[in-house]
Amino acid sequence: MKTRRDAVKREAVKRNTVKRPLSSRNGPVRLNPGRQTTLGGQVTLSGIGVHSGKPVNLTLGPADADTGYVFIRTGLDGRDREVRAEVNSVTATDFATVLGDRDGPLVSTAEHVLASLRGLGVDNALIEVDGTEVPILDGSAAPIVAAIDQAGVVALAAPRRFIEILKPVRVVIGDSSGELHPHAGGFRAEIEIVFDHPLIGRQQLAFDLEPAGFRRDIARARTFGNMNDVARLWSAGYALGASFENSVVFDDTRILNTEGLRYADEFVRHKALDAVGDLALAGLPILGLYRSVRGGHRLNHAVLSALMADASAWRVVEAEAPRRLRGHADVAAGQVAPAYGPDRSA
Length: 346
Ligand SMILES: [Zn+2]
What we know:
Distance between the termini: 44 Å
Bound molecules: zinc ion
Number of domains: 1
Mean pLDDT: 85
Number of strands: 22
Order of helices and strands: HEEEEEEEEEEEHEHEEEEEEHEHEHEHEH
CATH class: Alpha Beta
Shape: globular
Number of helices: 8
Radius of gyration: 19 Å
Structural class: alpha+beta
Helix content: 10-25%
C-alpha cells in the first residue's frame, strides 16, 4: 500500500527530474549512455543472521527497470511483505541498517547486499529474505558478489537514472561528520575512521566507485568488533550469530582471528562498504562526493535524509539515449554491465 510519504517522495523525484544533456558549472558533463541493469537470473545464499544467530536464506532476482531494490520478506504464513530500499524505509541504524514500514521492522542488516548490488552496477533487483535479517555470511560482501556473478548482470532497455548532487549537504553528530558534495566524475567516497586502538588508529580510504575497484578493494572487507563489545552485545541479546567466521575480532592488543586481516586497513574498507550500502538507499546511483569522518550507519542515514529533505540540493538526471548493445554474447558474459558513472572519455 502506498503511504502518503511515498507519494510525497515520488512527487519530489518527478519535480527534480531533468533530461540530459545538461551543462554543470564544471562544464558539460556527458553521462555514459548507459542502460539500467538487473540480474540475469535468481541466486540463493544461505547463512545465519549476525544478531539472531538463526538460519536465513537470501534470494536475489531480476526486476524491471525503475524498480530499484525491493526487499521481500517471505516465510510469514504466505503473507509476503515488501519494502522498497529507500531512505524513508529505515527504521533503525543502531548495529545495522534496518528497513521496515508502518507495521514495524522487516529486514535487518540490509547494507552489505545493497552495497554489492550498487558496487557491481546492478540498478534493479528483488531481494527475498525468509527471516528477520540478511545472512551475515563471512561478514563481507564477497559471497554476495560471487552470487551476483553467478546470476549475471544484464542490461535493460531503459536509460539509467542518477541522483546528481547540486550543492553541499553536511551533517555533524558528536565527533563524526558526513557530507555530500557535487562531483563531476561519478560517485567518489573519502572515508576516514579514528579508533583509539593500536591496531586501527586513523585510517583513510578514497575511491571512485566502479565494479572492478569495488570487487578488488572493498567487497572482501569484513565486519569487525572488539571482543569486549561483542561480549556486551551477547549479554544484551545482540550479535548472537557473531563469530570468527564472520567478523574480525580484536582485543586490546591483537587480532584474535587466526587468519589475520584480508587487507592491512580492512577496517576503513569495511566502513566504505557500509557507506556504499547505506547510500544505495538514495534509490538511484549518486553522482557526487561523499566524505565521512568517524561515520557509521547512523551518520550515513542522517546525511542521506538531509539530502532528500532539501530538494534544491539534488536532482534526478537521465543518461542519454543508450548505445546499441554490442552483441548477445556480451550479455551472456555479463560484459555489458556499463561503466558506473559519467563517461568522461568523450
Ligand atoms: Zn557492515
